[in-house]
Each structure stands twice: as structure tokens, then as C-alpha cells.
From TrEMBL:
It comes from Corchorus olitorius. PANTHER family: TRANSLATION MACHINERY-ASSOCIATED PROTEIN 7. Residues 15-45 have a biased composition (Basic and acidic residues). Residues 1-64 are annotated as: Disordered. This is Translation machinery associated TMA7.
Length: 64
């Protein structure tokens, strides 16, 4: 870098990643992963509707 050159240097452009060809096993794994994520989202939605678990809070003894 010479003293006349100032400012930031532009980063070199990275080559675009080539798209991989997916075989049947890869497609099956991606499909299974999507189904699991969908199931988790449904379970979270159900859990939010029900509220907190237990609901008892702090238990008090019968003594005064």
C-alpha cells in the first residue's frame, strides 16, 4: 500500500458456490427435517395455548 492510497480496500469477490445435486438420500433427509420442524412448531403452539405447566406455584404448609 502506498501512502497516496487511502480508504478501505474492497474485498475480493468470492466465486459463487455451485449447487449440489441431491440424491434420494439427501432429499429424504431434508424432507424428514422439515417434518420434524413442523411438528415442533405445532407442539410449541399447543403448549402456549395451555399455559404454564403445574400451575400450583409455591406450596404452603398448613401451619400458621
Amino acid at each position: 500500500m502506498s501512502s497516496k492510497q487511502g480508504g478501505k480496500l474492497k474485498p475480493l469477490k468470492q466465486p459463487k458456490a455451485e449447487k449440489k445435486e441431491l440424491d434420494e438420500n439427501d432429499k429424504a433427509l431434508l424432507q424428514k427435517k422439515k417434518e420434524e420442524e413442523k411438528a415442533l412448531k405445532e407442539l410449541r403452539a399447543k403448549a402456549q395455548q395451555k399455559g404454564s405447566f403445574g400451575g400450583a406455584g409455591l406450596k404452603k404448609s398448613g401451619k400458621k
